[in-house]
Amino acid sequence: MAVVMASGSFSVCAGLKSAKNHRLSSLKEVHFNSFVTSSRRLLSSAALDVPKAASAAAVEDGETDTVPIPKVVIDQDSDADATIVEITFGDRLGALLDTMNALKNLGLNVVKAKVFLDSSGKHNKFAITKASTGRKVEDPELLEAIRLTIINNLLQYHPESSTQLAMGEAFGIDPPAEKVDVDIATHVNVYDDGPNRSLLYVEAADRPGLLVDLVKIITDINISVESGEFDTEGLLAKAKFHVSYKDKAISKPLQQVLANSLRYFLRRPSTEDASF
């Protein structure tokens, strides 16, 4: 079940009302594809093309004025042979055939495992393996490409999700109405999880490339990421990683180093372009 990952190996919309908005949408999609292409050395830009929606986002019957919180879960723990992806957006998700096709364009085998309903909405679960190996996805850059492809499709076919997703700021029609306070949103905790590994929990403001960056920071201090789960919940990202140091649980001093490194990275202010 454990997935061992070395450093560097864990990675718009239809119905717009004006030509200006259409050009802005196209520019955002180019920026999105450029980012994924640069972070995915193993994939060509052609493999990352996402099918265009032919009309405004189709929403299922029963839509209300309240836009639900979109959630994308990438689960490396629950299945030993496949990466499990779960997508939730209230009751608004359809068959997600376009999303499945977009994931296949990344060189993946995608099996729709099941759909189920609960109080939070309709959950669509997929089992994903690499087409070349038939094994679960271990590369963090490819995992990030999977996440961004799903979010891009959400923004394309459900543009109303733009106001609820952190990615809506860069790639959606309308940015989120509220901004996340990075200091308040950032939480890093490390727990003992038996003699051979520890459990790292990270919660932070979401942004493109976050999954890849988290794994790089962890592995840069010689800590191994064995498996985990990465959740996108609206404006936030929540990561749970099983980690170890030389096949043992992380000592208390090293836990503190890890937590401090992640907090510094997640909370440090971004540099304004004007400062260069």
Automatic annotation (TrEMBL):
Iron is among the record's keywords: no
Entry-linked Gene3D superfamilies: 3.30.70.260
InterPro entries reported in the protein's UniProt record: ACR1-12, ACT-like_dom_sf, ACT_dom
A GO CC term attached to the entry: chloroplast stroma
Domain ACT: 84-164
PROSITE patterns documented for this protein: ACT (PS51671)
Coiled coil feature spans: none
Keywords, alphabetical: Repeat
Example GO molecular function: amino acid binding
SUPFAM superfamilies registered for this protein in UniProt: ACT-like
Biological role stated in the UniProt entry: Binds amino acids.
Record's protein name: ACT domain-containing protein ACR
Source species: Acorus calamus (Sweet flag)
